[in-house]
Amino acid sequence: MFVLGNFIAAVARIIDIALSLYMWIIVIRAVLSWVNPDPYNPIVRLLYQVTEPLMAFVRRRIPLHGMGIDFSPMIILLAIVFLQSFLVPTLTEFSYSFR
After folding, report:
1. What is the sign, positive or negative, of the torsion defined by CA atoms of 65, 66, 70, 71?
2. How far apart are alpha carbons 97 and 46 in whole angstroms?
3. Which phi and psi angles does 71 have, rounded to 5°?
4. 3-state secondary structure 23-90
5. Which of 92, 90, 91, 56 is nearest to 76 (CA)?
6. What pLDDT is attached to residue 31?
7. How far apart are CA 8 and CA 39, in angstroms?
8. Roughly what angle, to the nearest 10 degrees, separates helices 2-35 and 72-96?
9. Span 39-54, pLDDT tens digits
10. CA atoms of 75 and 12, how far apart (whole Å)
11. CA-CA distance, 47 to 11, in Å (whole number)?
């Protein structure tokens, strides 16, 4: 059963790394929105393609249009921090039960 425990621990670590990477991508996207980059730049297009589906989902669910500020990156970052502090430790502790 220790193999299953190691597998769950590895999945928890991969989720943690993926969430950290996506968090930095969201931060970079938010900073780029302040400087109005070239929309035809391949890196900018990649950042928008990776982040826009989730940001559009949050914008539809939590409409804050009258504020003038897009709060969707902040909400996504809070969700990522929640997942990193709840889901990843839960999976890690769960993996210890198989060892």
Report:
1. negative
2. 40
3. -90, 0
4. HHHHHHHHHHHHHCCCCCCHHHHHHHHHHHHHHHHHHHHCCCHHHCCCCHHHHHHHHHHHHHHHHHHH
5. 56
6. 92
7. 40
8. 170
9. 899 999 999 999 999 9
10. 22
11. 25
